[in-house]
Amino acid sequence: MYDDESIYNIYRNVKSLFRTFENGVRALFFQTDQLQHLLSALSSKGYNCIGPQVRDDAIIYDELHAIDQLPQGFNDQQAPGSYTLSRNNSTKFFDWANGPQAIKPNLFSPREKIWQSEQAADGAISFNTTEPDPRPIAIIGARACDVAAMKIQDQHFLEQEFIDPYYKTRRESLLVVAVNCSHPADTCFCYSTGDGPFVDDGADIVLTELNQGFLIDTYTDQGKEILKALTLLESTSEHIEQAESIKAKASAQKRSLPAFEIKTRLFNELNNDAWHEIATKCLSCGNCTSVCPTCFCHSETEVPELDGKSSTHYRQWDSCFSQGHSYIHGITIRSETSQRYRQWLTHKFASWHEQYGRSGCVGCGRCITWCPVGIDVTESLKNFEERRRD
Amino acid sequence: MINPYEPQEAIILDRIQEASNLFTLRLNFTDPEIQNAYEFEPGQFNMLYLYGVGEVAISIVSDPECSHIIDHTIRIVGRVTRGIANLKKGDRIGLRGPYGRGWPMLESKQKDVVVVTGGLGCAPVVSVINYIEQRREEFGHLNIVQGVKHTADFIWKHRYDNWREMPDTKVLLAADVGEALWPWHVGPVTSLFDQLEFDPNNVSVMMCGPEGMMRVVCDHMLDKSVPASQLFLSMERNMQCAVGHCGHCQYGSKFICKDGPVFSYEKIRDLFETKGF
Q1: Which residues of B touch A (CB under 8 A)?
Q2: I need a labelling partner for A81 at 20 to 30 A (CA). Which of A7, A27, A330, B165 fits?
Q3: Do residue B133 and residue B205 come from a single domain?
Q4: What digits encode the pLDDT tens for the residues A288-328?
């Protein structure tokens, strides 16, 4: 994929990696033994810490109380339709690429109660909305792709005509401690979407894991507040070099988006046979949309109590690959798998630009890894590179 | 903070059976403050909530200047509408809205108007006709065209009879399949189009019904040199949140619930020829 020279070129093109603080001080450094202090500082500020840990042979995000829960010494191998976690001899905590989820389920809940109605004996109906748990959460270990995806979901849920109160409450109390990626998976392509492997902005604190400790940078007042609890050192030029080398290596990714103008091309290729070819493999299972950090579709469902006195209104993640997604009075608009795949791909890579000013793909590669039949979105897109005349 | 998902209680002031599977509910919010503040435009819709069952998007058919009356004409097509059909005067319901962008009524003033509907009684354009009826002198020629598949699908005969009595108004009806005693045209709705009275340079065409029918109407009107920007279509897709969040009603980059449901043909024609969006 990349020889030494191309890595060098990426390296050379990487501009100044670390912002300087307003007072001109470079990114700070802390030794590994301070990592637990960071967790403790967050907890003592009232944050419920959520972080990566190994469960069911994958790295997932859940409540994190101590750094020994972190996936230290673990590494992952990802390929289309395949995810394997293994131990290596590293002492590093974050030497792996993303598992199936990170930030999204913590802000946009997979299933939540949004309101409840009650009917009195005289037929009067009253409504009560449900408020999300107001306890602030801190997510530790989120990657650049997920921070970029969060910014996209912010646009969808917070920056439109209507504001989602459930997302808003959680988002406003969220603190993100991101970690720059050192070992992207074979399925990653964030470098080509411009979203990684290092975090530009959107996180409160950004860590870069080096051999003896972490570079730490803050972007918000909340982040600066947490830093006060740590014993920080000034970073050395050797630290910065180490980080730049990590960034260059992590930027040399096996996959990338094709170079053609995808957003205009896709809508000119709506009748291309390739949609049908992809559909012969696609199971329309919706795994890709479940793991996608930007997919926002959800359905509303009603669960009445057996005594008839109250009823609860839920919303839960939905997928454009489901039969019901395009259902309208007896008609399913997208009855064919080819139409559903086309809906997903054209939305993510084309109409998203018109809706939110950028592509809906952050290059996390999850849809490739977690597709049970290994459909590779970067390969799917290549079908539309040139109009096929067969 | 306002919760855009939360319905408010409304009461059924009246229930009118329009046809065997069609009825109108006249609603009022039970909270007078909410009722007084409520305003809408023709072509906008509300989310109606049937207790214990769920919500459904229904367009408002009453006149925006009498916003104390909120009428919805509802066809029984699914679980929620079947349940709502069983409600009686005095029963309670959940209501939130109004949502969406409606018909371009202000922009259409002093213009001829062609209203084309197909299929079973097209409630979303009833508001247009009512609106013009209340302000007849502010609009040019009014043409009302309704096409049905079978003569038995034709409902609201009395309404069409009344509309025919309005000044400078032409009402044209067609059934694809005729039968004895059907007094109007038999054949596709477009075969009536030569009888329409309008100035192609000064007309708003407002249509509602099956997309196949609307496509034929658009083609015909473009042939008559009506600009695509003056052809307006009411689009329907699955709607669950009505506020542009749930994603079901997306049509390319458009959210039908908040960018529509009424679109000019100019805005959607790129996708209109393709099935599956």
Answers
A1: 1-9, 30, 49, 51-55, 77-78, 90-94, 236-238, 240-241, 243-248, 250, 252-253, 258, 270, 274-277
A2: A7
A3: yes
A4: 999 999 999 999 999 999 999 999 999 999 999 999 999 99
